[in-house]
Amino acid sequence: MPEVPDPATTTGASRSGRWPTVSADGFRKLAVVSLVMVVLIVITGAAVRLSGSGLGCADWPDCFRGHLTPPLRFHSLVEFGNRVVTVVLTVVVGVTFLAALFRQPRRRDLVWLSAGLVGGILLEAVMGGIVVYTKLNPYLVMVHFLAALPLVVDAVVLLHRCGRDYRPGTGRVLVPGPFVWLSRGMVLLLGIVLAAGSATTGAAPDGGSAQGQIAAKRIPVSLRSLAELHASLAIMLVGFVLALVVALHAIDVPERVRRAGRILVVTLVLQAAVGYTQYFTHLPALLVEVHVIGATVLVVGTVQFLLALTYHPPEAAEHESADASGPGVSAGEVSHRARVPEGVEVGA
User: With contact defined as beta carbons under 8 Å apart, do 67 and 60 qualify?
Assistant: First the structure.
C-alpha cells in the first residue's frame, strides 16, 4: 500500500499545492490599500457631516424605505457615497484578512491586526446605522468619528509590521526608557485633544443638518467654551511634543527618530494653524474638513513616531545578533542599541 503522509509532517510546499499562497510583497500591497481606504472613510464621513448630508439617506441599510439606491439629490448622493466607500473598505479589509491567513510565511501578529480591521469596520458600520436611526445624535456622531481613528492606527501598524521581523528578541529600543514613557503620555494627551475637538464640532452649527432636512441636535455647551478648551489642550500638546523632540535632538539617538519627531512637530503646528483659522473665519465647512484630514494625518504621524523609537530588522534579511549591524542600519543605531538594556520592552 502507498504510504499515507502524516499531516503533522506535511511541508509548506505540499500545503501550498492545496491552498493558495500570498507573498509578503503581495500582502504589503493589500496593507497599503487598506490604509488608504481607512483614511478615506474618515475623510468621507467628515464630508457627510460638514456638507449637511447626514440625513441624506434617512434609513439604513437602505437609503430610503424599500429603496437601496438614493434619489438624485446632492445630500442623498453624498451620504450614499460614504456608504459605498464603507462597502468597498469592508471588502478590502476582508481580502486582507484572508491574505494574512494564506501569507507565506504566515504571521500571527499580521492575522490579528487584519482581523482587527475587519471587526472595527463592521462595528463602525453598525454604529453608523445607529447614528442614522437616532437622527444624528451628536454624542453618537462624536463616538462614531473617534472610533474610526483606532482603525487608522491599526492600518498603519499593519503596514509597518508586514515588512519587518517582530519575533520576540529581534527588536531594539533606540531611545532611553523615559522617552518611551513620555511618548506614550503624548499619545494619551493627543487622544484628549481629539476628543475635545470632536466635541467642539458637535457643538458647532455645521453638524450634519441641512436645509429641507430634520435639524440635527447639537451638544448643549457653549461653542466658544469648547473651542477655548480644545485650543488650550492643543497648545499644551504642541509644547509637550516640541520639548520632547528638542530633548531627542540633545541626546545620542538615531537620525530616524529625530526626523520622525520633526515631521510630527510640523504636522502639529500646521494643524493648529488650520484650527485657529477656521475658528476666526466662523467655521467654513471646507476648512473644518481640512482640519479633520489634518487630525487623521496627525494620528498617522504619531504612530510613525512611536514606531521609529524601536528597530526591527527587515523580515527577509538575516537576523543580526545583538552586536552585529544588519542591512539598512546605520552605525549610530547599532552603537546606540548596544547600550540599551536587554530587559527594556520594545514597542509596537
Answer: no
- Indicate the pLDDT class of residue 212, thresholds 50, 70 and 90: very low
Q: Is the pLDDT of residue 256 over 80?
A: yes
CA distance 326 to 63: 55
44 HSE (CA, 13 A, CB side)? 21
Nearest to 279 by CA among 209, 221, 193, 200: 200
Tell me the three cell numbers of residue 144: 462614531
The pLDDT value recorded for residue 337 is: 42
**Look-up: residue for cell 487598506?**
34
Q: What is the pLDDT of residue 215?
A: 52
pLDDT of residue 150: 94
Q: Please write the tens of the pLDDT for every residue from 95-121.
A: 999 999 999 888 999 999 999 999 999
Task: Decide: helix, strand or coil at residue 172.
Answer: strand
Residue 256 exposed, middle or buried by CB count within 10 Å (0-12, 13-18, 19+): middle
Amino acid letter, residue 50: L
**Angle (CA) 153 155 157, round 5°:** 70
Helix, strand, coil shares of the chain, percent, nearest 5, are 65, 5, 30
| Residue 74, CB-side half-sphere exposure with 13 Å CA sphere | 8
